[in-house]
Amino acid sequence: MSDFLQSYGFLLVTLIQAGLLGLSLYFPLMAGQLSLASPGFYALGGYVAAIMLTNPAFAGLRDTLGNGIFPLTWLAAGLLCALAGVIVGVPALRLRGIYLALATIAFIEILRVVALNLSITGGAIGIFGIPQTFGFQDRWQYLLIFGPMLLLVLAFTYMLQKSRVGRAFRAIREDELAADAMGVPPTQYKVLAFVIGAVIAGIVGSMSAPFLNTWNAKQGTFDASIAILAFVLIGGSRSMWGPVVGGALLTAVPELLRFLQDWRLVINGLVLVVASLYLPQGIVGALGKLRRSPPPSRPPVAPTTDAKGGTP
Amino acid sequence: MELSSFVQNLMNGLAIGSVYAIFALGYTLVFSILGIINFAHGAVFTLGAYFTYTLVVGQFENNGLLKGINLFPDGSPFSGSPVMFGLATILGACAAGAVAVLIERLAFRPMRSRGADPLLALVSSLGVALVVVNLIQLLVGAEIYNFPSDAYGEVQPALSFKIGDKVVIIRTVQLIIFAVSLVMLAVLGYVIGRTKVGKALRAVAESPSTASLLGISVDRFILITFFLSGFLGGLAGTLVGTAFGVAGPYFGVVYGLKGLAVIVLGGLGSIPGAVAGGLVIGLAEAFVPAEYSAYKDAVAFALLFVILLVRPQGLLGRNLIQKV
Asked: Looking at chain A, which residue has its C-alpha nearest residue B258?
C-alpha cells in the first residue's frame, strides 16, 4: 500500500485537484453560464496561501498559530476569491450570452500581467519554498486534505441541487426570461453560482500552493481554462459526477499518451474535438443514456434560428 | 506630452490598432452569422504568418520535422520585390482562409447539423487550435523566424521627419500595415455593403431560416464567411510577423485574446464596431506611459471591463431586445 502511495500519490492528488477545479466550473454551468475563470481564482487562492506562508509580514501570525495558519490560508483564499468573484461577476452577469466567458478571459489575463509585475507575488520568478501543509513529509499525504475536500464539495453540490437554489439555477439555465417572470431574479442567482465556483477554485489553489512548493504566474493561464472547461464538458455538464470523471480522465490521458512523445499535445487536441463531436452529453451523460430508455427523438434544431449578432 | 512623441505614439497606435481591427473582423464575421466565437481564429492568424514565411523564405532552418527541406534551392521567387512579397502575403492569407474553411467543415458543421450545445463548439474550436499550434511546433519548432531584411526588396526601412527640433521616426513597415489595413477595410466594406454576395451574407446574418427560404444557400455563405474570416486573420498574422518576427507557434494566442476584447469593446457582431474597437485599443496601448509599459498587455482587458460596466452593447453595437 505504501509503495503504491509513494509511486502514485502525486498523480492521485492531481486527479482529485482536476476534479475539484472541474466542479468549480460546474456551478456557473448549472445556471447556464460559461465561465473560464477557474484558473484565475485558483491562481489567486494560491498566491494568498503562498504569501501568507512565506512573506515576512506574516511571520508573527505564523509563529502564533503554528499549523493553524494552513486552515486560515484556505479561509482567506475563499473569502478573497468570493470578493473577486462578485467584482468580476456582477458587470458580466447582468448580460446574457457569451459575456461572462469573455469577461473571465479578461480577468485571468489582467491577473497574469499584474502577478508578473508586482513584487509581492515574486514577479516572473514567483514564490519559492512554500512550507508543506501540516509539515507533511510525503506528497501522498496531501490526499488527506484533498480527499475530504472533494467529498465535502460533492456533498455540498448534492445538497444544493436538491434545494431551492439548485432549482433556481436550473430554471435560469433552461430559460432565463421565464425564470425571471416566475420570480427568480437571474442576476443574483447567476452571481451566486459564479461566486460558489470562485470560492472552490480559490480554496483548491490555496491547498495546492504548498503541494507544489512554488507558485508563479504560469498557474492561471488561458490554456488551463480550456483544460478545465474540457474536464466538465467531456465528463458531462449535466451531472455532478461529470466534472470529476472528466477531470480525472483528461488528467490521466496525457500520462497514458506519454508514449506518443511529441505528438501527445496534438492528439490531446484531437481528443477534445472528437469527444465534443461524438459525446455531446459527456461521458457520464452517455453512460446514463445506456441505462435509460432513449427519450423520444426531437427533430434536429435548425442550424441557427435567429440573428444572434448584428449586421455585417 | 511633446508633440513629436505624440505623433510617434499616434502612428504606433494606428498601425497596431488597424491590425487588431482586421484580425477582430474575422471573429465578428463568424459571430454575426453563427452567433459563436471561433477560438481557433488565433491559430489561423499564426498559420497565415507561417504560410507567408514558407513562400518567402522556403525553409525552416532551426528545428522541427521540416528542418533541412528547402522549397526553393535557387532562392524564393517571392523574395526581393515588394510586388512578389505582396503576392506571397495574399497567397498566405488565402491558405489561412482555406484552413478556416476546413475548420468549419470538421469542427463546426457537424455540431450544427446535430443541434449540439453551442458551448461544445467552443471546446471543439479550442481543440482545433491546440492541434494547429502543436503541429506547427512539431513541424518547424518553437523558434522565432524573422523575415530577411531584403525580403521586400530595396525599401527604405524608416521615414524620419522633424517636428520643431525633435526627430520623429516612422518604420516603413508600420505605414505599410496601416495602408494595407485601410485598403482591406475599404474592400470589405464594399463587398458587404454593395455587392450581391454581401447582401446575401447580411440576409443570412439577419435570419438563416428566412434567407434559406429566399433561395440563399446558407451553408455556402457560411463557408464564404469562414474563408473571409481566415483570410483576414492570416493577413493580420503576416503583417504582425513582418513587423515583429514570426514569434513561435503561440504568437497568435495573445492576439486571439485581445481580439475578443476588441469585439466586445466595439460591440459583438458589429463590423464598424470591430474597427473602432481595434483602433481604440491600439491607441490606448501606444499611449501607456513608459514606466507602466509592463502593464501594456492588460490595457485591452481593462477596457473590456469598463465597457461592460458603462455600455454593455459596445461602442457601436446595437441594443438587442431579448425576444422570447
From this structure: A106
Nearest Cα residue to A254 out of A221, A290, A279, A230: A230
Cell 501543509, residue located: A133
Name the stretches of chain B with pLDDT < 70: 1, 319-324
* B239 contact partners, CB below 8 Å, separation of at least 6: B19, B89, B176, B177, B180, B181
Residue A275 lies in a domain: no
Cell triple for A134: 501540516
User: Where do we find the cell 523564405?
Assistant: B57
Residues 9-38 of A with CB under 8 A from B: 34
Residue A236 in any domain: the answer is: no
Q: Does A116 touch chain B (CB under 8 A)?
A: yes
The complex scores an ipTM of 0.84
Per the domain annotation, does A184 fall within a domain?
Answer: yes
In chain B, % of residues over pLDDT 90: 38
The distance from CA A296 to its chain's CA centroid, rounded to whole angstroms, is: 34
| Subunit contact A276:B273, Cβ cutoff 8 A | no
Condensed to tens digits (0 to 9), the pLDDT of residues A261-271 reads 677 778 878 88
Q: How far apart are CA A187 and CA A54, in angstroms?
A: 38
- Asked, for residue A293, whether it belongs to a domain, the answer is no
Give me the domain span that covers residue A53. Answer: 13-221
Q: Where are the domains of chain B?
A: 29-249
Q: Which three cell numbers stand for residue A273?
A: 474535438
Tell me how far CA of residue B313 lies from CA of A267, B252, B253, in angstroms. Answer: 39, 26, 25
Question: Among the residues of chain A, which ranges form H helices?
Answer: 2-30, 38-54, 59-65, 69-93, 99-117, 143-162, 164-174, 176-181, 186-212, 222-235, 241-256, 264-278, 282-291
Give me the number of domains chain A comprises.
Answer: 1
